[in-house]
């Protein structure tokens, strides 16, 4: 928990001065859900970009095809704590993500994550996983994009773990495209040096979307294996 609080310290400082902006973001009514989400995600993106600059992180993006308009499910490997700010700053689309419920206790951070349409999961409660999936499906159907890390935990640079199939129900039940993302280098910032933050170069590859018609009738296990293989192959090219 101490590491999480330290990690979000800048978020707290930045968010404390933007609380009024958060309230205004809730009241926005633009032409589309995505346009509204872009406005809501403006401050989190500023936070993420500034945090990476402070630490000395250089993001090297690779976008094979721009993500489609409308809600999508981003699926990424999970290397380190800095995956989230790296992706918030570099993915050309606003999104929320699946997070452990303990983060809600962090002042300002939890409030902003709600604005971003994040979904919270109580890992101590097994039945909560089903509720989180149902909530996530609802969020996606409402037009908000989400990001998941199907490994379930950070690899810390020790090699990608097998993807868990359950979270792929989010795309299957909501009927949204899946956009695979390969991220490499974030473990060099924090995990490999304990609590001492280190400058690093991080590669982010956004792969072409997989549309619902491409995985219609496919089991969640087979879909997870397909996306896992695509990301694994991309990591070997970085």
Automatic annotation (TrEMBL):
GO cellular component: membrane
GO biological process: phosphatidic acid biosynthetic process
Record EC number: 2.3.1.51
GO molecular function: 1-acylglycerol-3-phosphate O-acyltransferase activity
Keywords tagged on the record: Acyltransferase, Lipid biosynthesis, Lipid metabolism, Phospholipid biosynthesis, Phospholipid metabolism, Transferase
Entries under Pfam families matching the protein: Acyltransferase (PF01553)
Reaction(s) catalysed (UniProt annotation): a 1-acyl-sn-glycero-3-phosphate + an acyl-CoA = a 1,2-diacyl-sn-glycero-3-phosphate + CoA
Domain Phospholipid/glycerol acyltransferase: 72-186
Enzyme class: transferase
SUPFAM superfamilies referenced in this protein's UniProt entry, alphabetically: Glycerol-3-phosphate (1)-acyltransferase (SSF69593)
Mitochondrion as UniProt keyword: no
Pathway(s) per entry: Phospholipid metabolism; CDP-diacylglycerol biosynthesis; CDP-diacylglycerol from sn-glycerol 3-phosphate: step 2/3; Lipid metabolism
Family note: Belongs to the 1-acyl-sn-glycerol-3-phosphate acyltransferase family.
Domain remark in the UniProt entry: The HXXXXD motif is essential for acyltransferase activity and may constitute the binding site for the phosphate moiety of the glycerol-3-phosphate.
Protein name as annotated: 1-acyl-sn-glycerol-3-phosphate acyltransferase
Classification lineage: Bacteria, Pseudomonadati, Spirochaetota, Spirochaetia, Leptospirales
